[in-house]
Specification:
With 166 residues, the chain is mainly alpha-helical. Helix content is 38%, strand content 0%.
Length: 166
């Protein structure tokens, strides 16, 4: 962005954080009292810095570095809140959401140098991405943004509109 805009990178990062705060306020204001049938939760892994070379990386037999998660040996569904219908317990939607986040934000791409150096910058990028995803990006299956069928918005928002709204 610095090369494209000829604006110093610290200025761009400050604007990112300011825009992230505005996006968070916008979503807190707009996303309220939404009727939901199902709630899916899952972790999202991100990286805020690289390990230094002297710390090393975990390895498996043979001395090679391991970049993949461990194999799943068992799974147990344990409801943490309420009494969910066992037939509806699933993570397919939240996993698709996680994939969209990983594909849409390089900060979540594995094995690259596109990590966040500061938590504040990472938070701002994530909030902005979700705000755009919900208000400004029409989804192919819905042919509208997720905010529209939820009754939160009546149109596809522009980036300018998102930034000016909060």
């Amino acid at each position: 962005m610095e090369r494209l805009t000829e604006v110093h990178h610290t200025t761009i990062v400050k604007l990112l954080v300011l825009a992230g705060a505005k996006a968070e306020r916008l979503m807190a204001e707009k996303v309220r009292n939404v009727d939901v049938r199902d709630v899916e939760l899952d972790e999202v892994w991100g990286f805020s810095r690289l390990r230094s070379a002297h710390q090393g990386l975990p390895s498996h037999p043979g001395g090679e570095h391991r970049y993949s998660p461990a194999d799943v040996v068992a799974m147990e569904v344990v409801p943490a809140l309420g009494r969910p219908d066992p037939e509806r317990i699933c993570t397919s939607i939240v996993e698709r959401s996680n994939l969209s986040l990983r594909m849409g934000s390089r900060r979540f791409t594995r094995l690259t140098n596109a990590f966040s150096k500061k938590w504040e910058n990472h938070w701002a990028a994530v909030v902005l991405w979700y705000c755009w995803y919900n208000f400004g990006h029409p989804h192919k299956a819905l042919r509208m943004t997720p905010a529209m069928p939820a009754g939160i918005s009546d149109h596809v928002w522009t980036v300018r509109e998102l930034l000016e709204a909060a």
